[in-house]
Structures are given as C-alpha cells and as structure tokens.
Design brief:
The chain is α/β, with parallel strands linked by helices and 269 residues long. It has a domain of 151 residues: P-loop containing nucleotide triphosphate hydrolases (Rossmann fold), CATH 3.40.50. It is 40% helix and 26% strand. A hairpin with a 2-residue loop joins strand 4 and strand 5. Helix 5 crosses helix 6. The longest helix is centred in the last third of the chain and has 19 residues.
Amino acid sequence: MASDSFLAIRGLGKTFAAKRWWGGERGGTVALRDVTLGLEKGRTLGLVGPSGSGKSTLARCLAFYEAPSSGEVWLDGQNLWSLGRQERRAMRAQIQLIFQEPAASLNPRFTAGEIIEEPLVIQKWGSAQTRLQKACELMETVGLPSQAAGRAALAFSGGERQRLSIARALALQPKLLILDESFSGLDLSVQAQVANLLLDLQKRLGLTYILISHDFGVVASLADEIAVMDNGCLVEHAATADVVAKPRHSRTKELLEASLALSLGGALA
C-alpha cells in the first residue's frame, strides 16, 4: 500500500553478508535496522549521524546502488524495489546521488560538457548536438559559463567541480536529489555558494533534497527537517527548528554540541 508522502521509507533494513574464505556466508554486518520515514515533495531532509551510522547505505538503497534486505521504498506512488528491470531503469534516472568527492566521480578524460552529457548518452536521449546544447544550458543553470564546456573537468576548482556534479545530476530532470557529504572539503565561502545554488534550484525546479552529513550546522542551515541516524537506526526525526531547540536523543545532543564547539573554535581562530 502506497504512502501519501512523496518519499516513503518503510521498515528498511540492510545486512551485508560476511563471506567465509572457503565459500558460503556467515552472519554479516547490519547497516540499517527498520528505518521508517517520509518526506514531502519540494522539501529538504537533512540526514545526520556519525561515521558508520548508516547514512550512506540508506542513500545507496534509495538510489538503486544497493538492494535492501527488507522493507520498502516508495517514491511518487511507486514501490521502487518491486519494479521490473525496464521500469527500474527509468526510475533510476529520477533519483540522482551526488557523492562526497566530485573528482572521484568525474572521468578525468572527459570535458565538462561530456561529463554532463554522460547520463543523457546512457539513456539514449537526443542527438549529439542536442545533448551538447543541453549540457551548455545546464552549465549556465549552475552558474558555470557554457564556454567552458570544452575544458577538462578536473581543471575546475573544487567548488566548480561540485557544480558540475549538480549539473550532471540535473540532466535527466530527477525528482529526488541526494547529496552525500557534498560540502566536505569545501571552504566556508564555497559552501555558502553551493548552498545558495541548491536553494535557488529548489525554488526554480521544485526539487526534493536529501542532504547527508556528519556536520549538523551545515544541514541545519538548509534542511526543513532533520533525521538522525545512529548504529543503523533512525533515532530522531522532526522539523529542523524542533530538533535544534529540543533534541530528544543523546546522539542528537552530541552532534549539536560538536557542531557548536566547531563553530566557536572557528570564530576564535
């Protein structure tokens, strides 16, 4: 039965089986434990938690990189993991995952234009000319000059590469954009530029975001609501203002205190 929420995650679990050296499996590592949450269209969910809490595994289950061991994921009325191969291929285009380090996911042999065109080529969208035109339009959309489409992707700065990653993710007009630690490694001024870009794109295109980070401060400045992960479990989920003002779980309090200490340290430096 579908949920009224645009995104509905129900009882999601993921266990990575451990292999014996002589074959077969034994036990395994539980990465997600009965995760249930919903998100309305056009809103931003901040997903926070310490390293190893299950944030990235959840993202990979949403974006078809990992099959969940149990539970369901519904997006816009469709049960994602019950879809057939062709339907899943089409839906995969609607959920885009942007990884932490853009340089690692950008082909060093490609130009900026080719990077953005890549998902269009995979989906057999349009002609070479229309794909290039689309890539140039997307570069302008994310604040990069279209004249730079012929430059090597790795010739761009860290912030510019993040913009390229966002442009590529937008190429197939996704319904859900997941950013996994996308602000890590960027200085504060570049973080602010990327944050403003995301807010502008959301306003113009009606995008729905999941922002994954261990940095509570970054997420709190952008998210409408925050979900806190700990040891594979969802331990808190509420409006951002409520989580910041009255955190209920001990892990949430720890993350808030760490973020505050980091902010004070930066201010005193």
